[in-house]
């Protein structure tokens, strides 16, 4: 009765059997098995088979059934366009009209403008209008994430009529676990959960039991902020209003899980210096194409380091020993800079660092840089002294490490805050970038000090 | 009617007024305002005020009301212990008995064993047993995340009786939006959503409308795997069973959001070389304490680099120019290694890289390393030739960069896969660690090549 559990829990169906039924045009057997699968597994099958098999699927499944697959699908941008173009345009338009508006928007934004317009023309006028409106919202805002399939009700309705509305809307609404309460101008005034509804007396007025302290977002709010609200308040869905508090749509928790996943990947990949981390399946050429821009940019920054060091060639010629500690110093300063950067970028992303705490943060990092700098510096003095038996070299390298860590820690916290201030995503000041900048300052400090002390070395 | 929206949406209440009411012992006004607040806002207030104010709160709020606050609270480990000890033990025990078992477990694991046992003794025997059992599951497994407050029903019940069970359990169950269907041995056989229940005919048998292809986890499954299932299938809750398929508990989406947040922070902070990134409020000493272990460890690894370079001191003495390119070469190899590492670590974490695709991944990375290596190498040959007018030096640096990138990319993908294979979290092969290892190989390649070619330089 229960599927056999497997390691990855994704082969709970006999793929080859399904393909055989499709090829043999055994529509009944295929539909019986396929439609009992979870939409996510259906989507995995759909994406995996070739275009010929997919074309049979379009004949065997109704646009409504295909819409379920598209609700569950997770595709690369290019694939979506490719798949949609496999379909008969009328079939595709019908399928889209069965999908939740937020998912339709996701699909349509991947098509070029002509295709998009022709689909909108084939769709029901009211839906086409709603979708055009949703597509007008800027990317990464609440407006672009929300769906318009919510359940709303007037304040003076009874619990009974609310339950009837829910029953009627259940097949279409994205969630029926919250009912949003509005006044005569469709302005949001409250919220009530299905949980509260099913335990309430049928004649109770919604007004008397609704929660009036409803937390909501504006259509222009950033998606990271929305994600934070979900994390804090543990909502399953969340209303979005315009400037006049008129209810425009809702955001559901499944969309937010995708956003969180995206944002986490995004910050992480920027820290590693890659533009897009998700493409595990890409070939070596595509992977190289994704990574080369950063590598080459950093290569040129590295050239600046090299040319600055050129100024100290005379010093290096006199005391070749100095070169041995260059990787140590630049590495350590890079590491401490990345640590500070990671804390600050993550703090900005989660909203824990705001205007008020910025200054406190920088002072904190100055203190941290000083402590870690002195600690590492002392260790280095000792180790170098024991190794090279020269207190002078030990003091030089230790001082350079101490100063480098101090500067790198401040830079690692200050630069992302500065970049954020001028309205750019602070994650662009990513790990390798700040590391290379810290390379330059640390080597300048080290070789500068060495040149000053050259007589004593 | 609706709260005024503010930038961070967290001051939807007059904090000072609440404190004044507490100090004036105006219990009615305090309760009226405080209890209308969302539990998350209540928790923020509770955490923010001092111990004296909190002590008044314990008198003004029932253990049941305080339990709501503790459901919503997000605390550092040390704070929880501190707060619980402020309370009268009987009050605390009562409060715990009103909380969902998974949250009780979270609180109790922060206390020392004696305190824990004394609380368990004060609690209802059945609950104490359940909690002891939950506390027995290993950290980061499905068992440690799940709660036992779910709604279950027999297959041969009707929709009407299911709805009655739901109404009865609604105040206690963590979610009532799924009803889990079990056989006479309490083995999981299906699931049905409240959405399906409210649109079904009252006399329908659950068996006839339940979903039999229920996706579930075992108590021993890792939390990352659970998070992946939530991401894929968009569930709101998810059953957990033991080896015999007997239903043990459920995991709800809000817990998974916390897990995802934790895991993302965790991978990110490891890539940056910090043990714990969340502590924005820590002072400089605490921050330094968190960061120093990594810095010092890397410092000693850096010393190895320096001592290996010491082998080439003679070469460096003869051609001091060579030193200029050391940061460039080690930096570039570090960057490409981190890129490969980030892709692989993330791929392992999300489950996209499994046993089968491992080898493919390594071959892909070899290809990527070769392409990026040759591309960067050629650029460097050209730039160094134009700058230093020496084709020999250009070729040397270019070849070293090309080989370093190739080796670093393979190491960046191979090492985490290897570490994962032997059962360790691959994120420990974090950015700075692999960077420092790559430093060593790249410098060996560069100075080794240089020494071989010394006659021509």
Automatic annotation (TrEMBL), chains A, B:
InterPro entries linked to this entry: CBS_dom (IPR000644), CBS_dom_sf (IPR046342), Mg_transptr_MgtE_intracell_dom (IPR006668), MgtE_N_sf (IPR038076), MgtE_transporter (IPR006669), SLC41_membr_dom (IPR006667), SLC41_membr_dom_sf (IPR036739)
Record PROSITE patterns: CBS
An example Gene Ontology molecular-function term: metal ion binding
Record flagged with keyword Metal-binding: yes
NCBIfam families reported in the protein's UniProt record: mgtE (TIGR00400)
Function: Acts as a magnesium transporter.
Protein name: Magnesium transporter MgtE
């Amino acid at each position: 009765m229960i599927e056999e559990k497997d390691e990855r829990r994704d082969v709970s169906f006999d793929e080859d059997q399904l393909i055989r039924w499709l090829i043999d045009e055994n529509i009944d057997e295929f539909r019986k098995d396929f439609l009992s699968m979870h939409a996510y597994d259906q989507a995995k099958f759909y994406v995996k088979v070739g275009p010929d098999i997919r074309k049979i699927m379009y004949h065997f499944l109704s646009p409504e059934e295909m819409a379920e697959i598209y609700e569950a699908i997770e595709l690369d941008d290019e694939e979506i366009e490719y798949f949609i173009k496999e379909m008969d345009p009328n079939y595709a338009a019908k399928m889209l009209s069965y999908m939740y508006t937020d998912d339709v928007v996701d699909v349509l934004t991947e098509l070029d403008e002509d295709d998009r317009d022709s689909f909108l023309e084939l769709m029901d006028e009211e839906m086409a209008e709603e979708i055009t409106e949703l597509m007008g919202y800027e990317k990464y805002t609440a407006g672009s994430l929300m769906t318009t399939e919510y359940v709303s009700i007037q304040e003076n309705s009874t619990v009974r009529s609310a339950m009837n509305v829910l029953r009627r809307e259940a097949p279409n609404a994205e969630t029926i676990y919250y009912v949003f309460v509005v006044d005569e101008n469709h302005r949001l005034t409250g919220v009530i959960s299905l949980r509260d509804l099913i335990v309430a007396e049928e004649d109770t007025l919604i007004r008397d039991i609704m929660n009036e302290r409803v937390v909501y977002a504006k259509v222009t709010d950033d998606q990271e902020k929305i994600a934070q609200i979900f994390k804090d308040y543990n909502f399953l869905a969340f209303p979005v209003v315009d400037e006049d508090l008129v209810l425009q749509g809702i955001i559901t928790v499944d969309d937010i899980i995708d956003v969180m996943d995206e944002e986490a990947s995004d910050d992480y990949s920027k820290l590693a210096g890659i533009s897009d981390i998700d493409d595990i399946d890409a070939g070596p050429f595509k992977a190289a194409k994704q990574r080369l821009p950063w590598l080459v940019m950093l290569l040129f920054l590295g050239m600046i380091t090299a040319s600055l060091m050129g100024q100290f060639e005379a010093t290096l010629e006199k005391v070749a020993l100095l070169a041995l500690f260059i990787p140590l110093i630049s590495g350590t300063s890079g590491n401490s800079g990345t640590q500070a950067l990671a804390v600050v970028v993550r703090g900005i992303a989660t909203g824990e660092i705001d205007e008020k705490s910025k200054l406190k943060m920088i002072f904190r990092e100055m203190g941290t840089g000083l402590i870690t700098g002195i600690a590492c510096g002392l260790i280095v003095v000792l180790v170098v002294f024991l190794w090279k038996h020269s207190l002078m070299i030990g003091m030089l390298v230790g001082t350079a490490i101490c100063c480098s860590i101090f500067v790198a820690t401040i830079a690692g916290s200050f630069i992302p805050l500065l970049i954020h201030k001028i309205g750019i995503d602070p994650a662009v000041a990513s790990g390798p970038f700040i590391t290379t900048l810290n390379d330059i300052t640390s080597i300048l400090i080290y070789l500068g000090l060495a040149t000053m002390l050259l007589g004593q070395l």
